[in-house]
Amino acid sequence: MLCGGSPYPPRRLPQVLVRRRHFVAAGTETRRANSKVAPSSWNAGRRPAVNLVDPFLGTSSFADHRGELAALATAACWTVSALAFTEAARRMGSLALNVIRLAMALGLAILFEGFARGEALPLDASAHNWFWLSLSGLVGFTLGDLCLFRAFVLIGPRLTLLMMSLVPVMAAGASWGALGEGLSAWSVVGMMLTVAGVAWVILERKPLGAGSVVHASAAGVLLALGAAAGQAGGLVLSKIGMSDGYDAFASTEIRIIAGLAGFIATVFFGRAWPRLAMAARSRPGMAYAAIGACFGPFLGVSLSLVAVKYTAVGIAATIIALVPVLVIPAVVLIYREKVSLRAVLGAILALAGAAMLYR
Prior knowledge:
mainly alpha
């Protein structure tokens, strides 16, 4: 009763208790002021969100470039996840891998959201958020990633990620049609360069042995195109779903939930439960899936949002688009793949075209 207010006038209390009441009240106000949290958040009964980025980056000598560093870290994470998912898909199959890795990513997202926002699930989202973000999850995760991981198996991570350089081009075209966002002449030139760089690499024919020739399979290229279209469509739908300023991390969680539901429905109607159970028993496959889920849907997406927060979207997107270039030394070291000068120049040309989209 002393801290919350006494029913007796102060003059009726002993002076020791009166002094104690003022001391406790002053101490409470001091703690609230030091916490730098608005009083309304204390009264709302919710734990305030925890900023996990500013305390670390703010003390770094690279604080002025935190957005660029986060974007570079995103590209590195997505390179690792692509290689891990390639190995997992070869052991588990693309459908089983997608179910398992989204389930892992959802678990990580629930833990993160519960700690950072005080809400493990996005129950504060509106019907608008749920509809468009769920649709984004079905298009981007269910349809797009189903094609993506099958393409990893058929044409490998290098060519698949190079095809994903077309995502900015497709996203720009989709946003022009759906959102009315204009395209400058410079952007059109950038699109043409990106398409030319990708086509230059894809159409390369490498002699193997005496007289035999290998090149990217048509099925693998079409699946990679489908993956790029799915990711581009998912980005545009996500922008519509977050148009009211809804939290980006919670939006990602909604997309994961919808994508996982889509894959579970695919497994159910396709009667693929035996394959899923068999894949879950593959220890190497589960290990690679866990690595990919950590560096891809969880860390990679989170760092990409940090990058967009601290630097211009165009700069962040351009640095993140380094993935097709970063994966080249990885496939040379891991898979002993012989990468021609034409492949390197084509990847750089595609990256330069993607950068021109944001001038």
